[in-house]
Amino acid sequence: MNKFLSVVLFTALSYSGFTQSPDMQKSIGAIKKNLSESAAKMRNYEWIETTTVFYDGEVKSKTTKQCYYGVDGKLNKVAVGEPAKAAKSPGGLRGKAAANKKQDIDEYMKKCVEKIHAYLPPNSDKIQAIVASGKAVISPLVPGKVFKVDLPDYLQAGDKVSMTMDNSQGLLKEIGVSTYIKDKNDKAGVLVKYNSLPDMTSFPSETTLDAPSQKVKVVITNTGHKNAGVK
Question: Which residue range(s) make up the domain with 170?
Fold first, then answer.
């Protein structure tokens, strides 16, 4: 995370003609520092991850996992409670059609996840190339405090990666991805919202994957953070 933010915040600002005043440089350094420290601090926390899958506006599945880092430094996710039981499919041709539809959706979601993994976390080399091309756009959302960086044509023509940052607090607020799967009419997007704990540890509080052409949405929330040593 630090590497790509370094490229965006320093290179993009210089190419866009923004003046890097001492205050701006200080705030940029604060954002990088916060992300670096947050990555280390998260190893001391445990939290609950809830994944909800919607189809055509209705909840189709919901899973809850307890997340924590092991002594080996790897992130562990343990299922909490009983998994939701799938509704019994009707028999005959109707049942077969329902099963095929579910399989199609599962395969499509796999493609969505694979595509999104190509975007997140953003690649520093790709960011630098976009910035150097002059396509990157920096927009102040709250003058002197919050700004947004747009990186169009990130992987393919017509897509975009966006980042919103609060330089008054030194915090990353959002990362958004707008892309498409099969063609430009098959749009898909991801929005990652960041929050912070009382000790200023930043974490992705909500990640939403939306594939409207397939009427599918997946929402992942991270809540209930507490020190792993406190029971």
Answer: 2-227
